[in-house]
Inverse folding.
């Protein structure tokens, strides 16, 4: 018998066919099972959960995603318990059942110790309060020899001691000296400034923020001062004066043009008037009288 006698056997071809089929079926079946296990054909777009309540989102999407809370932060002006940051990011292509890691706005407000701002300048006091996460409520000017020197610090109408625990963002009233000269202060130009900038610039100038009027319903990040009263052209005002402001959206108004118009009006208002001497006025009056007398004589 030769070495290739098995080629004449039917069993050889039968077994070869089985081997070939297994070589095809096994890889195909493996790929199908992997696709089914990994949900390769089911891709979802990650929703945007930022700003929404974490517990509510977790309840509504519990079948789609596995939410994991990793941290909490204390951003200013954000709703406690809302999602501050998420991973994966909104718009990402993900699969159902994926872990979603969330950072939320802390439910318990962050606290900070009250600094001592008595006996220092107004500018330095504002800086210390900002560093501690506190805000100025308003400035109260009283008779005191040292101008813009902080005499007392108040919270909710009562003096507050250094080290007292306060919620960040609490507003502090500062009692400030007006100085012996009781001189007025210049009104800063706030046109085009945001709400946060507006209050800070007024306080640094020794002034208070008055009535705030919002002329549209756009997001606060786009709102800027369109009008103020008293304005920069008013000159100097008493320390502690309340300045009213009107906000408008920067997306619907050209604040550069508004600024140019305000500067033009301010320049005209502060333009020095020509000096007219008394002698010149008298001479002009006498000349007019002579002319009237000549006209009277001509009539007769």
């Amino acid at each position: 018998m030769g070495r290739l006698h098995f080629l004449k056997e039917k069993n050889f071809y039968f077994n070869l066919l089985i081997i070939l089929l297994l070589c095809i079926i096994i890889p195909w079946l493996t790929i199908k099972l992997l696709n089914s296990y990994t949900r390769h054909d089911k891709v979802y777009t990650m929703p945007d959960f930022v700003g929404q309540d974490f517990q509510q989102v977790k309840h509504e999407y519990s079948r789609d995603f596995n939410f994991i809370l990793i941290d909490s932060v204390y951003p200013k002006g954000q709703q406690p318990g809302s999602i501050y940051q998420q991973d994966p990011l909104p718009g990402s292509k993900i699969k159902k059942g994926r872990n979603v890691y969330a950072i939320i706005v802390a439910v318990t407000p962050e606290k900070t110790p009250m600094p001592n701002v008595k006996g220092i300048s107004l500018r330095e006091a504002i800086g210390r309060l900002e560093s501690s996460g506190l805000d100025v409520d308003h400035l109260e000017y009283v008779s005191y020899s040292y101008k813009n020197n902080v005499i007392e610090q108040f919270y909710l109408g009562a003096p507050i001691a250094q080290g007292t625990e306060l919620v960040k963002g609490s507003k502090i009233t500062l009692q400030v000296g007006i100085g012996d000269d009781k001189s007025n202060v210049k009104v800063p130009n706030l046109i085009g400034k945001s709400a946060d900038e507006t209050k800070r610039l007024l306080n640094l100038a020794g002034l208070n923020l008055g009535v705030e009027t919002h002329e549209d319903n756009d997001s606060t990040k786009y709102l800027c001062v369109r009008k103020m009263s008293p304005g920069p052209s008013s000159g100097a005002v008493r320390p502690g004066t309340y300045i009213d402001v009107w906000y408008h959206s920067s997306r619907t108004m050209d604040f550069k043009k508004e600024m140019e118009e305000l500067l033009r009006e301010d320049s005209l208002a502060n333009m020095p008037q020509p000096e007219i001497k008394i002698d010149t006025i008298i001479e002009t009056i006498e000349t007019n009288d002579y002319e009237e007398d000549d006209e009277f004589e001509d009539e007769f």
Notes: The longest helix spans residues 10-38. The domain at 44-105 is CATH 3.30.10.20 (Trypsin Inhibitor V; Chain A).
